[in-house]
Amino acid sequence: MSAAQNEPVAREPQVDLTDEQWRERLSPEEYAVLRQAGTERPFTGEYTDTKTEGVYRCRGCGAELFRSTEKFESHCGWPSFFDPADSDAVILRADDSLGMRRVEVLCASCHGHLGHVFEGEGYPTPTDQRYCINSVSLKLEPSE
User: Fold this and answer.
1) Which of 22, 38, 45, 113 is close enough to 32 for a disulfide, judged by CB 3.0 to 4.6 Å?
2) Where is this region: Disordered (predicted)?
């Protein structure tokens, strides 16, 4: 099933904090992206061009989301991955904001906003998908 057709299964977040608790845990920029579906400016994120090997975790809850082996250079201004580390690591849902149809990517564990997934763009990846993810929503755990 393609990302655009995939609708999320209604499920409660495993990490469910109050708005006040999220504000205490996250910086203002992290909160704006993860909890309010904001977007960091392109080409400004910490992981846009990194080639460090490791696991990318949710900055909100620590859940494993992506691995460096699925990261690729898309030159779009945000870190791009062609597949999540585990198919259950993220939730995909329709996003009709900004006058266009997109597919939003959420952390399955805390329902934090990560970015969007696009397909059919012609990147030479195994899935023909580009998970365009905000650096500020991720925390890289380098391999040893």
Assistant:
1) 38
2) 1-24
The pLDDT score that the predictor gives to residue 116 is 96
Residue 93 CA to its chain's centroid (Å): 12
Q: Quick one: which of 34, 56, 66, 43 has its CA closest to 130? A: 66
Indicate if the pLDDT at residue 23 is higher than 80.
yes
Residue 44 in 3-state DSSP?
Answer: coil
Structure tokens at 28: 């203002």
Q: What is the pLDDT of residue 86?
A: 85
Number of structural domains (the chain) is 1
pLDDT in tens, 51-65: 999 999 999 999 999
92 belongs to a structural domain: yes
* CATH number where 110 lies: 2.170.150.20
Per the rule left: phi > 0, alpha: psi between -120 and 50, beta: everything else, 132 is beta
Catalytic residues: 132
Query: Does pLDDT of 111 surpass 60?
Result: yes
Kindly state whether residue 126 falls inside one of the protein's structural domains.
yes
